[in-house]
Amino acid sequence: MTPNEKTIATFETRMRQMILRFQELKKENNDLYAQIEEDEKQMETLRQQLDQKQKDYEALKMARMISITDGDLQSAKDRLAKLIREVNKCIGILSDENE
Q1: What does the pLDDT look like over 65-90, one tens digit per residue?
Q2: 8-34: per-residue pLDDT in tens?
Q3: N or C: which end of the chain has fewer CB within 10 A?
């Protein structure tokens, strides 16, 4: 084998190695792009879930505020009814004293 043939054989071997390495890297690159796309889809799903959970939380807060307000309203009505009964008793007592 002449030096030129040896050089050409070495060159061919290295070219084949480079082509194989290129193909490996191309496959790895495609796999990574597929992974990125899958991750982006998952992130979008998680964003939508987060948005829904935030809306649910806001609705729950509002419902809680309304229920507390309703409870306060009922207790206020009860206190007012008690005060009216006491005033009526006082009026009754005063009416009895005046007779």
Answers
A1: 776 666 677 777 888 899 899 999 98
A2: 999 999 999 999 999 999 999 999 999
A3: C
**Tokens 């409870």 — which residue?**
71
Parent domain of 54: 1-73
Residue 47 lies in a domain: yes
* 82 inside domain: no
Q: Is 43 exposed, middle or buried (0-12, 13-18, 19+ CB in 10 A)?
A: exposed
Residue 88, domain member (yes or no): no
Give yes or no for a contact between 9 and 1, defined as CB atoms under 8 angstroms apart. Answer: yes
Can you read off the two tokens belonging to residue 60?
Answer: 């729950």
Question: pTM to 2 decimals?
Answer: 0.53
Instruction: Name the more confident of 97 and 5.
Output: 5
Query: How many structural domains compose the chain?
Result: 1
Tokens 């054989």 found at? 9
Half-sphere exposure (Cβ direction) of 4: Cα atoms closer than 13 Å: 0
Compute the distance between CA of residue 34 and CA of residue 73 in angstroms, rounded to an integer.
58
